[in-house]
Amino acid sequence: MVKLNDNYLKLPGSYLFSEIAKRVSAFTEANPDKKVIKLGIGDVTLPLTKSVIEAMHKAVDEMGAAATFRGYGPEQGYEFLRKAIAENDYCARGADIAPDEIFVSDGAKSDTGNIGDIFSVDNKVAVCDPVYPVYVDTNAMVGRAGDFNAETGMWNNLIYMPCLEENGFLPELPKERADIIYLCFPNNPSGVAMKRDELKKWVDYANENKSIILYDGAYEAYISEEDVPHTIYEIEGAKTCAIEFKSFSKNAGFTGTRCGYTVIPKELKVNGVEVRSLWNRRHTTKFNGTPYVTQRAAEAVYSPEGKEEVKGLIKYYMENAKIISDGLKKAGFTVYGGVNSPYIWLKVPQGMTSWEFFDYLLEKVNVVGTPGSGFGPSGEGYFRLTAFGSRDNTLEAIDRIVKTFEQ
Ligand code: PLP
């Protein structure tokens, strides 16, 4: 009889966002007259910008004419996009990354989820707690996370690095040796950023211990403070120990268009083997390239007009973040994040769990957020709101929260 991958059977119940969707739809079915405002899922709401749309239209026309039609492209991405990424996101920031160290994909979720393919299941993995669930679940799927303990909400073979109020929601260097370390800054869910000198400690740790940092920079575009690095390769020594993941989802609104990329420098080697060569093998075997039209759209993000438009999108969402932050503070909440990131991480009222606060907010205020405990045990007692809603909905949601909680 065929055998299944039993690791999938160990995965706990439903994925965070399906549980949220279930509770929201039960509420809206029972209360069809109520306007529920969703500030839960990290999905953008503003449409694609003018330059991006024009580039896509042009590319569609090319695809419709025999002389300019494109079939399969290079799996790693077209040279025009890899060059634009290298020049704008790296060389312009003093990080010397070459186009052939960049692998274009359909997004950072796929890449952060698939990267484990090139590492042995014997590696010891460290994750922040709370954390973007993809890192944990994809390690669990191949058996690298061990067994799930429903009582603690933890996998017994993962190293959890608690990110708590007392450490500014930043992880501490693991006491136990970690081979693979997932870092995501600006962070989802806490919204905090890691400063240059702090990140240097991690790069030094990884080089000293021959570990690899998997650095998720999906929210890089939201960085507003000077001493926060925009790429891990701004840090000396990072090229020999770090892989970086980036996405066009949160800066240019590509959540539905789908494009991201992974950077693996040639200097990153394990026992003399270029890690990049393994990813190249994996990528070219299992992936047939991001659509041409999408890659032209991504290229347009780097044009002078495209850059200005992205600034406009970020400004809009960050104004929402400020509205949320200020409103929550006025209502008496302790609030983090929202400065270098579109996420606001708030402490739930004393005596409530994250899910109890979720239900309270849904039922009494008709606002949907994300319970912190859904991102890991150390997220208990916290709640995430996102700045990705429309301005009107954000203002209305915060107005309702202030009216309900202000003493
Ligand atoms: N990484 C983090 C930390 C995220 O929060 C998200 C999406 O919410 C992603 C990656 C996914 O990005 P993409 O849309 O490029 O797959």
Describe this structure in words.
The protein has 407 residues and is α/β, with parallel strands linked by helices. Helix content is 38%, strand content 15%. The chain is built from 13 helices and 17 strands. A hairpin with a 5-residue loop joins strand 13 and strand 14. Helix 3 runs antiparallel to helix 10, helix 5 runs parallel beside helix 6 and helix 11 runs parallel beside helix 13. The N and C termini lie far apart (64 Å). The mean pLDDT is 97. It binds pyridoxal-5'-phosphate (PLP). The site of pyridoxal-5'-phosphate (PLP) has 14 residues, from helix 5.
- Share in β-strands: 5-15%
Return the average pLDDT rounded to an integer. 97
In this entry the ligands are: pyridoxal-5'-phosphate
Low-pLDDT sequence parts: none
Helix/strand-derived category reads alpha/beta
Task: List SSEs in N-to-C order.
Answer: HHEHHEHEHEEEEHEEHEEEHHHEEHEEEH
Gross morphology is: globular
Helix content: 25-40%
Strand order of the largest sheet: 2-10-9-8-7-3-6
User: Major β-sheet, in short?
Assistant: 7 strands, mixed
Strand segment count = 17
Distance between the termini: 64 Å
Rg over C-alpha atoms, rounded to the nearest angstrom: 21 Å
Number of helices: 13
